[in-house]
């Protein structure tokens, strides 16, 4: 095992104890400095990104990365401004650390509090997106955690300069720069995954292969999602103009991201009218359509779907005609990834059933799947999307980066008095 990686993790562990004890004001000052530093170092950041893009163009030509991955790599002055604003939006959020979640009076003078605390050291592994660095860094600082980031090789130059920029801002704010660190190379991942004594949570952001590999090779808890196979179900009682707009947005607004829809399910009673309109609208935006047998019969020149369990991350949409909501829900549970699903309907009873019975991290009514995002949820940013059920689900913001501990305030009580009947428990829930 590399001594250097071990030392990085040890410094992170030490920094996590310091940042966990910072006040909200101290953390917000650090975040303000981080946002300002992006503007001050924009020239170096854009230069590093240009080098990454030049290198990635060869990877794109050889098929090593996709066109959507290449697009996610791009940094611009406008994008830097957006990244700085995301950091400021995180600073504006309430501090989750120290918040009392529950308060119980066990007995007179014996008060138990369940209190939110940071997780500790996060290891976040991500691929192409430069803004992942600032989102992750801002959320880690605000939630009182230290973070070790491992970027994909296609974004290493940009990520290196970004992390150096954020570390410099932390140092000038009086916060340990080791609260944000960077490691490079696949070997570093493997070493970090073996450090369960130093790393408290692993958050992978990337392909299914990446997430599944990490889940299979570490004893450290892993929070993440393997795929984003999202669905839009157009019900029999849907407003078809609304449905067209929602399916369009869910597919074409940003097809490369995990909350883009990959499959549209159409109730058979509206399919004959709806699908030709949908095909015309999406083909105007160069969307390639795939379909089931019924879809092919309605639309004609549609390719058959080879595998419904495919995350295209591109301008490709699979379409299936279903008999009813039962078949739609069965399809989602069989082929989906528990990410985000939406129903388009004006039938409130149908909507209520869909929202209740679909088991995904996000279930929407008359809204695009693209709303499944930490910033749009009001979290300021996110470290990723979780499709697991423990401990966080959906976009993971500040609260998802905290755990809790029990704090007991007493006046000299001992258990023997309760065991021998000299005292008795009240177990009274107190107002917060």
Average pLDDT across residues?
Answer: 94
Per DSSP, the total helix count is: 15
CATH topology grouping of the largest domain: Aldehyde Dehydrogenase, Chain A, domain 1
Secondary structure class reads: alpha/beta
Number of strand segments: 17
The proportion of residues in beta strands is 15-25%
Shape: globular
Termini Cα gap? 47 Å
Helix content: 40-55%
CATH superfamily of the largest domain: Aldehyde Dehydrogenase, Chain A, domain 1
What is the count of distinct domains? Answer: 2
Structural Rg: 24 Å
Low-confidence stretches: none
CATH class of the largest domain equals: Alpha Beta
Neighbour order of strands in the largest sheet = 10-9-11-8-7-12-13
CATH architecture of the largest domain: 3-Layer(aba) Sandwich
Largest sheet: 7 strands, parallel
Structure characteristics:
4-stranded antiparallel β-sheet, 432 residues, Aldehyde Dehydrogenase, Chain A, domain 2, 17 strands, 7-stranded parallel β-sheet, globular, alpha/beta
Structure in words:
By secondary structure, the protein is α/β, with parallel strands linked by helices. The protein folds into two domains: 3-95 and 119-224 and 396-401, Aldehyde Dehydrogenase, Chain A, domain 1 (3-Layer(aba) Sandwich); 230-371, Aldehyde Dehydrogenase, Chain A, domain 2 (3-Layer(aba) Sandwich), CATH 3.40.309.10. Helices cover 43% and strands 19% of the residues. It contains 15 helices and 17 strands. It has helices at residues 3-20, 24-40, 42-61, 67-73, 77-91, 131-142, 156-172, 186-193, 208-216, 240-252, 268-283, 293-299, 325-335, 348-357, 415-419, and strands at 100-107, 110-118, 121-126, 146-150, 180-182, 201-205, 230-234, 261-267, 288-291, 303-304, 316-322, 340-344, 362-365, 385-386, 394-395, 402-409, 428-429. A seven-stranded parallel β-sheet has the order 10-9-11-8-7-12-13. β14 (385-386) and β15 (394-395) form a beta hairpin. It is globular. The two termini are 47 Å apart.
């Amino acid at each position: 095992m590399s001594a250097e990686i071990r030392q990085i993790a040890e410094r992170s562990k030490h920094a996590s104890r310091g940042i966990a004890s910072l006040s909200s004001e101290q953390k917000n000052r650090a975040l303000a400095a981080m946002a300002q530093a992006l503007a001050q170092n924009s020239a170096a950041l854009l230069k590093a990104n240009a080098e990454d893009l030049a290198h990635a163009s060869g990877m794109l030509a050889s098929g090593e990365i996709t066109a959507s991955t290449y697009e996610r790599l791009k940094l611009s002055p406008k994008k830097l401004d957006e990244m700085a604003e995301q950091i400021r939006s995180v600073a504006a959020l309430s501090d989750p650390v120290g918040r009392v979640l529950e308060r119980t009076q066990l007995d007179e003078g014996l008060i138990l509090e369940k209190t939110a605390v940071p997780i500790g050291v996060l290891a976040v592994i991500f691929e192409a997106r430069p803004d992942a660095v600032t989102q992750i860094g801002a959320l880690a600082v605000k939630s009182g955690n230290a973070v070790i980031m491992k970027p994909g090789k296609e974004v290493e130059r940009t990520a290196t300069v970004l992390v150096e920029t954020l570390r410099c801002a932390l140092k000038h704010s009086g916060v340990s720069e080791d609260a944000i660190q960077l490691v490079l190379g696949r070997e570093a991942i493997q070493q970090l995954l073996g450090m369960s004594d130093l790393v408290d949570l692993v958050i992978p952001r990337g392909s299914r292969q990446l997430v599944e590999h990490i889940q299979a090779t570490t004893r450290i808890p892993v929070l993440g999602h393997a795929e984003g196979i999202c669905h839009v179900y157009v019900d029999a009682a849907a407003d078809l103009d609304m449905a067209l707009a929602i399916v369009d947005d869910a597919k074409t607004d940003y097809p490369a991201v995990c909350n883009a829809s990959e499959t549209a399910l159409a109730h058979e009673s509206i399919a004959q009218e709806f699908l030709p309109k949908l095909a015309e609208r999406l083909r105007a935006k160069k969307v390639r359509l795939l379909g089931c047998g019924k879809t092919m019969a309605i639309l004609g020149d549609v390719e058959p779907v080879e595998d419904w369990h495919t995350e295209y991350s591109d301008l490709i949409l699979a379409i299936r005609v279903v008999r009813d909501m039962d078949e739609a829900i069965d399809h989602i549970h069989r082929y989906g990834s528990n990410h985000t699903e939406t129903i388009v309907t004006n039938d409130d009873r149908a909507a209520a059933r869909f929202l209740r019975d679909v088991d995904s991290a996000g279930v929407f009514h008359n809204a695009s799947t693209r709303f499944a995002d930490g910033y749009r949820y009001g979290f300021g940013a996110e470290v990723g999307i979780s499709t697991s059920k423990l401990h966080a689900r959906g976009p993971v913001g500040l609260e998802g980066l905290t755990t809790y501990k029990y704090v007991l305030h007493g006046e000299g009580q001992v258990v023997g008095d309760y065991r021998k009947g000299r005292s008795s428990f009240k177990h009274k829930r107190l107002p917060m």
